[in-house]
Structure to design on (353 residues):
């Protein structure tokens, strides 16, 4: 049903409009009437109509002032103003306020029907527009994570991917020329300082992944990849210019905030390795490799930037990064046999740790 209010200080005018609407529309209901501008304003707050017939000349607050006041809170309401011949200037002012139409009094039945049909079509069109926008939003909420995963996989897995990375840059409308990679690793901290139970956490992480995404995106503008074993890769777009030291400080501070937020809410340990910021998308794979080297250098939960690694100290745990990369490539390619072989190799290595 389409809800209508009639505001007019003349009862005969109200009754006439009600009669026309009741006789010509099955889906229109007059939900309220008002005899002054003030009464119209008050009744709108009690029950919001879709359409208001508003007489311009009423005692106290006139129709123009009432329209202006109601529109402050209810811009979606469609107004049809009622006026006599000698009030045309008022009607023109009402049109400037965004009213849909004005009718000359006494009203003509056919004109009322025509104008109300026009208003109903406008309401239907607006509802359809909102429905389409909601559907698009729902589709984007489903598609965007898939595209984000595609970007991260392109950085992590594939070689000679410059064109693909630039394609993702256009898809996400990323204005920054480059950026850097953070790799977040999680698990149970063992006595030697490393993180254990990696396979177990690759399963458990599916439960806290939504919180992880919300926490990280609330702290920095970024694109987050999927869970890969017990790691999640994060790309942070950035234009850092020539001040690499300043960029490094900002990245470490951001990672520190992320680590604090995650550690407070999730019952596991986290390590974050950060690669250098580069001014081109084509160099993001290098930043990813650097983030892994920074991770290997960390001996306990914390944050490490690649540039903070002591020169000559390679660190490392011997973890077979090449096999993990091969596993992800084979899974992406749908090669079940090679995927199982690579997984078994990693599993055997983890079991021996």
């Amino acid at each position: 049903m389409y809800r209508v209010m009639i505001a007019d200080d003349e009862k005969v005018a109200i009754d006439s409009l009600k009669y026309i609407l009741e006789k010509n529309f099955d889906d229109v209901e007059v939900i309220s009437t008002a005899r002054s501008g003030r009464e119209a304003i008050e009744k709108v707050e009690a029950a919001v109509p879709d359409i208001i017939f508003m007489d311009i000349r009423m005692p106290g607050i006139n129709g123009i002032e009432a329209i202006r006041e109601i529109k402050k809170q209810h811009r979606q309401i469609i107004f049809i103003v009622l006026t006599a011949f000698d009030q045309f200037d008022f009607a023109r002012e009402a049109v400037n306020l965004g009213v849909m139409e004005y009718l000359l009094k006494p009203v003509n039945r056919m004109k009322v029907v025509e104008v109300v049909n026009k208003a109903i079509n406008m309401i239907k069109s607006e509802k359809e527009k909102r429905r389409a926008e909601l559907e698009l939003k729902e589709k984007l909420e489903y598609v965007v994570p898939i595209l984000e995963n595609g970007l991260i996989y392109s950085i992590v897995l594939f070689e000679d991917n410059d064109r693909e990375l630039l394609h993702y840059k256009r898809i996400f409308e990323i204005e920054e020329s480059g950026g850097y990679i953070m790799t977040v690793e999680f698990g149970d901290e063992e006595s030697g300082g490393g993180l254990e139970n990696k396979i177990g956490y690759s399963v458990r992480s599916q439960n806290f992944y939504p919180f992880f995404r919300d926490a990280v995106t609330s702290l920095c503008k970024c694109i987050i990849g999927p869970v890969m074993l017990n790691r999640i890769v994060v790309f942070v777009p950035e234009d850092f210019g020539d001040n690499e030291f300043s960029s490094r400080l900002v990245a470490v501070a951001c990672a520190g905030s992320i680590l604090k937020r995650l550690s407070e809410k999730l019952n596991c340990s986290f390590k974050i390795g950060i690669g250098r910021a580069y001014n081109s998308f084509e160099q993001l794979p290098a930043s990813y490799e650097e983030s892994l080297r920074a991770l290997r250098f960390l001996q306990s939960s914390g944050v490490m930037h690649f540039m903070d690694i002591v020169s000559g100290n390679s660190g490392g745990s011997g973890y077979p990064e090449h096999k993990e990369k091969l596993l992800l490539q084979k899974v992406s390619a749908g090669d079940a046999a090679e995927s199982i072989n690579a997984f078994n190799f990693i599993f055997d290595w983890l079991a021996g740790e």
Notes: The CA atoms of residues 14 and 117 lie 19 Å apart. The radius of gyration is 32 Å.
